[in-house]
Amino acid sequence: MREATVAVPLARPLLSRRARQRLSGYVYLAPVVVVLGGTIVFPILKAMHMSLYNHVLIRPQEYRFIGLGNYARLLRDETFWLTLWNSLVWVFGSVCVQFLGGFAAALLLHQSFRGRGFVRTVTLLPWIVPGVVVALVWEWLYQPNYGVINDLLFRLGWLKERVAWLSDPALAMPAVIAANVWRGVPFFAIMLLAGLQAIPDEQYEAARVDGASVTQRFVHITLPMLRPIIIVATATRVIWTFNYADLIFVMTSGGPANATQITSTYTLLMAYSNLDFGYAATLSVVLLVIMLVFTVLYLRITRGIESVT
Amino acid sequence: MDDRWYHSRRQFLRAMAASGALAASDLAWWEAPLLSPRRAWGAAPVRFQFSVPEPKRTVLVESLAQRFNQSQKDFEVKVEFVPQAQARQKLVAALASGNPPDCCQVWDNWVGEFEGMGVVEDLTARVNDWKHYGDTLPIAWQTVTVKGRILSFPWVVTNDAVYWRVDRAREYGVKPPKDDWTWDDFLALTRAFTKPENNQYGFGMRGQGTWAVLYATEFMYANGAQVLKDGKVAINSREAVEALDWYLALIRKHKVVPPSVPTDGWRQIVEGFGRGITNTYIHNSGSCEEQKGFVGPQNFATVPLPVGPAKKRASFYFSETLTAFKNAKNREGAWRFMTWLMDDEPNFMYSRTLGLLPARKSIADRPEFAKDPNLAGFVSSFPFSIVSPYLAYAGWGGKLDSEGVPLFQQAMVGRLAAKDCLDRFAEVLAKNMA
Known about the structure:
The complex is a heterodimer. Chain A is flat. Helices cover about 70% and strands about 0% of the residues of chain A. Chain A has helices at about 15-50, 70-75, 80-110, 115-130, 130-140, 150-155, 170-200, 200-210, 215-245, 245-250, 265-270, 275-300, and strands at about 55, 65. Chain B has two domains: about 40-160 and about 320-380, 3-Layer(aba) Sandwich (D-Maltodextrin-Binding Protein, domain 2); about 160-315 and about 390-430, 3-Layer(aba) Sandwich (D-Maltodextrin-Binding Protein, domain 2). Chain B contains 19 helices and 14 strands.
C-alpha cells in the first residue's frame, strides 16, 4: 500500500516579512534606548518634575506642588544672576584660551622633530590627571604662604607681598581659569592634531606650488579643513566647562564672597548644603535650557557641521 | 649589589611585624587584642553611621565596634563610614527615604534639623533612668535637648579657645597671654607675632565654613551682642557691628592674618599653625592632638578667648552626639551600643585618642584631660561656655554656610561694611526662623 504525502502549509508568521524587517532595527536599538532613557531622559524629566515642588529634604512636612514658584524665586535671586555671569566668564575665559593654546600645541606637535612621541605623551598628561587632583595640585601651587608660585615670584623679585591668588575676589576667577586652561589645552591639542593629520599633504604642496605663503595656507587650507573639528570640540568643551564644578568646588568652594560661584557649584550648594532639592532641580533645568539654546545657536551661526563635511 | 641595601625575606618579614606592632600600639589600651573576629551567629545587626574627618578615627571606631561585639552576644555593630563632607546629606537622604541607620554619630547642630523632620528617637525617658545621667555635664545635655526632649547622647563636647605658640613667644620676647586677657592683649600678641618678612602671621583667622561665622560671633558676644534677643534676631545690634568692625580690622588695618584668610577653612587654619605660618588660631580641642604632632606639645598652649570691652566673653559649646532614629530596624541594639560607648573606658579612649573633651564629668576630671597643659584653655573656658546660639532654629543650619559665609567673606575682603554684612545676615536668619 502506498502512502500519500500531504503537503501541510507553513504556519503564517505573526508579522509580515516587511514588518519584521522594519522592527528588527528597533529591536537592536532597544537596549540603547532603555539605557539612555534610564540614565538621561528619566533624570531630566524627574528634575523638571522636582522643580515644580517645594522639596526641602529637611522639611518633609512642607513638601507640596508650587508650580513655577521655584522659577519665580530664581528670577529674584541675585546670587543666581551673579553665578550666571560668573559662569559666562568662566566658560568663555577657559575655552578661548584653551582653544588658542591647544591650536598652538597641535601645530607644534604636527611638525617632525626628534622626541615627538614623548612630547605628545607629555602634552596629554594634564588631561589624564583626574579633575579633583588637578584642583588640589593647583590649590597648593597657589597657596599664598607656602605655594610654589608665590615662592618663585619672590625669588625672581617680582613680588613684594604675598599674593592670595584664591582669596582675593579680583584674582580668584582668573586663577581658577588658569588651572582649567592648563587642564583643557590637551583636549584641543589632541582633537586638532587628529584633524591636522587628516589634511592631505597634496593640498599644501599644490598651494605651495601656486606660491601661497604660510599664512595663506593656514587661512585657506588648514582652518577650513579643521572647521568641523573646531565646531564640535568647542561646542563640547563649552558644555563640559559650563557643567564642570569639580575644579572650583575643590579650589575655592565658590568663594571668596561668591567671586568664583558658577551656576553649577551654586546648584551643588543648594542641593547638598541647603538640601533644597526643588530649587536645585530648578537651577539644573535652567542650566539645561541655557545649554540647549547655546548649542542650537552655535550650530546655526557656524552653519552646522553637515554642510562642511 | 651593596650588602647594606640587600634585605633577606626574614628581614622583610621582621620589618613587617615591627610595623604591625607599631600600628597596634596606637590602640594599646585594648584589653583583648583583636586576634579573631567575633563569632556570634545569631546576633542582630546594628547599623552605625560614622562620619570620618581623619583616618585615625576609622581605626578607632572600628576597634570600638569590635570591642562591643565581643562584649555581648545579642548584637553585632556594623560601622558605615561616610566622608564628613557628605555625612549630613547622606544621612538626611537616608532618613527621607525611610532607610536610616540604627544610630549614628552626628553633630548637635544637625539634631535640630532631624527633629524638624520628625525622625529622631526621643530618648528622654530612658536617659533619665540611665546610670550616668547625673554624671553628664548639664550643658552637654542642653546641646542635645530640643523642645524639652533629649534626643541624643552627647558623646564628646567641644568649646573654643585660642591656640598660641609658646616657643615663638619666648623667641620674640612676647608676654604670654593669661586666662583673663583682653582684646587689647590679643591685638598686642598677634601684632608681636606678625613677621611678614619671615612669612609668619599673628592670627590664623577662619574665612570659610560655618565656623567662620561662629568665631566672629564669639567676638560679638564679648562685646555684649547676642544673636537672639527677646525672641528676635539681634545680630545686627550696635555692639555686634562694633565687634565685627574690630575683628575685621585684624585683616584690613592691623594685617595680623595671612592673606589667604577669606578662603581658609578648618584644614588651612590647623595646618597654617602646624607649619609655623600662624602663631595663634581659634579652634576647639579637636586639633590639639594634631598640633602635638605638628609643633610638639611643649611648643604650644591654649588660652580662653579674650575678654571684650563689655567685660564679657563666650565660647560656643558643641557636642558630637550619638543619635538614634524612630524608623531604625534595631532600636534596642542602637540603645545598647550608644550606652556602651558612653561607658567609662570606651568614652575615655575615644576622647583621649582624638583629644576631645568627654561629656561625662568623672571622665573629664581625669588628669589626662584636667591636667593636660595643652587642653588648659578649654577647661578654663567652661565657666563661660554657652550652647551655640545658632542651634536655636533648625532652619539656620544650612543657611549659615550657604548665605552667611559669603556675607562674612565679602566683609573680610572689604566689599561690605560690618553693618551691611550684619544687616543682611540678620535678614537671612529672620527669614529662616523655623
